[in-house]
Amino acid sequence: MGCSPLGIFGRKNESHSEKSSEYIVNNTQSLKIDARLFINKRTGLLSQEYTIGPKIGAGSFGFVREATSINLKKKRAIKSIKKSEISQSLKERAEFVAEVNILIKTDHPNVVKLYEFYEDDRYYHLVTEFLTGGELLDFIIKRKWLCEPIAAHFMSQLLSGVAYCHSNNIVHRDLKPENLLLDKDTPEALLKIIDFGTSKIFDPTKRMTHKYGTVYYVAPEVLQGYYNEKCDIWSCGVILYLLLSGRPPFYAKSHEEILEKILKGHYSFEEPEWDEVSNDAKDLINQMLHRNYNFRISALDAQKHPWFLSQKCNGRRLSSQVRHKSALANLQNFRAECKFQQAVLTFIASQLLTKEESKRFIEAFKAIDTNGDGKLSKEELLQSYKNEINELSAIEEIEKIMKKADSNNSGYIDYTEFVIASAKSEMLLCNSNLEQAFKAFDTDGNGKISAEELKGILGNGLKANDEIWLKLIKEVDENGDGEIDIDEFKTMMMKLINQEI
Ligand code: 3AM
């Protein structure tokens, strides 16, 4: 069953220029570098940048195709929406714009990554990471239901993505196994939330009223037209019930009857599939399917439910501890103090890293992110370092790490910042990554990066003193011609590796 928006659309949203800043930046250290800088709106021809492959799927919005980036040689999924089909409807246009804006805001391993978006005469195209493992729905259908450790592995990833969205005031409103894609078709797969077409930036002091969702998964309060972000948790509860039993908790022959059952909130664990399921799992489902959303568990608290601890096998915990220790050591040694270096590393970490390469960072990141909100606070870093060094030295180290690694000055280490700071530079700075990154900064393709080109990328919408871009170039411009060539670019980046040794 497809997504059936249940009501009228209306939203107030930040625009792409949200990444601009109100204050005037007049020194390079105040520049905010983050992955969003590289998500560009492109106006050229998609076919000049991508070799377009077969259709992967279609929906009411348009279609999704497989593609390969000609420059980067990376596989992508491209969701295309025909303008003529949505131009009549302000609602659909707003939905599309909102999806782009929300994806630009997110930087989390369990939320699909947006690389860039295109607008041509006839289409809007969203270029996202390509996930080859299919939908969680197909994964369950093939296996009928999942054993508890596998269900817990998927549910903890889903809750981690949802907690991150909620802590950034994003509500998805159409969580269902069709919108959860896997990077491969195996029980260890990485799960990603897709389709933010019905999502919204919410105001925590207000309730939402527009009715969105899909019949089996929609929360009772959404049907009643007065709800908050906890509607996503209800959908997670339905998904967990489905994962463990192969059936939805609210089932009937017609949509009307299903909606009636949802409104009553009656479901049971009486079917034989539930005999072997632990009480912890049932307790978590009960807390996620609490009819009153004020008493429903939050995504942050759900991640700490004892069911997850009981399902983690020792081997997994051990390997993530080892990774997390080496990540902590690398964080201490991270030295990209020059903003240009930080920007190049951000481009490589957010646009070029493969899913396989990302995997070990995700485990380490989640091991340190103890409150599960998808970003690392000073307190969380302190907890981790306190296990390795004494508290006073840990406090000192963390101040240094925040100064160097928090490149967008948010007060937290975001996922991409963590990857950059905790990876060994050799891994990020291989020759092909450096050449791809150079091409991305050399926007006119003349073989040199000028101050104007740096401004175009790093200063997108920013009120900054023009001297800043010249200063960034000067720091690296060894032959003094006012521009950066590929050799100077590589020398700048290789300094990071030499510092580490
Ligand atoms: O049409 P089906 O259900 O087979 O799984 C998504 C769905 O497939 C797929 O495109 C269809 C319409 O949403 N899809 C969406 N985003 C994708 C991505 N990033 C994707 N498949 C792979 N990678």
TrEMBL record:
Q: Which InterPro entries match?
A: CDPK_Ser/Thr_kinases, EF-hand-dom_pair, EF_Hand_1_Ca_BS, EF_hand_dom, Kinase-like_dom_sf, Prot_kinase_dom, Protein_kinase_ATP_BS, Ser/Thr_kinase_AS
Please write the reaction equations for the catalytic activity of this protein: L-seryl-[protein] + ATP = O-phospho-L-seryl-[protein] + ADP + H(+); L-threonyl-[protein] + ATP = O-phospho-L-threonyl-[protein] + ADP + H(+)
Q: GO terms for molecular function, please?
A: ATP binding; calcium ion binding; protein serine/threonine kinase activity
Q: Where in the cell is it found?
A: Cell membrane; Cell projection, Cilium, Flagellum; Host cell membrane; Parasitophorous vacuole membrane
The UniProt keyword set, sorted, is:
ATP-binding, Calcium, Cell membrane, Cell projection, Cilium, Flagellum, Host cell membrane, Host membrane, Kinase, Lipoprotein, Membrane, Metal-binding, Myristate, Nucleotide-binding, Palmitate, Repeat, Serine/threonine-protein kinase, Transferase
Named cofactor requirement(s): Mg(2+)
| Record-annotated membrane-spanning stretches | none
| Stretches assigned to the Protein kinase domain | 50-308
Q: How does it sit in the membrane?
A: Lipid-anchor
Q: Which CDD domains match?
A: EFh (cd00051), STKc_CAMK (cd05117)
Q: Give its E.C. classification number.
A: 2.7.11.1
Q: Name the positions where ATP binds.
A: K83
Q: What class of enzyme is it?
A: transferase
Primary location: membrane
GO cellular component terms attached to this protein's record? host cell plasma membrane; motile cilium; plasma membrane; symbiont-containing vacuole membrane
Q: Report domain EF-hand positions.
A: 356-391, 393-428, 429-463, 464-499
Q: What does the similarity note say? A: Belongs to the protein kinase superfamily. Ser/Thr protein kinase family. CDPK subfamily.
Please give the name of this protein. Calcium-dependent protein kinase 1
Organism listed in the record:
Stentor coeruleus
Read off the lineage from the record. Eukaryota, Sar, Alveolata, Ciliophora, Postciliodesmatophora
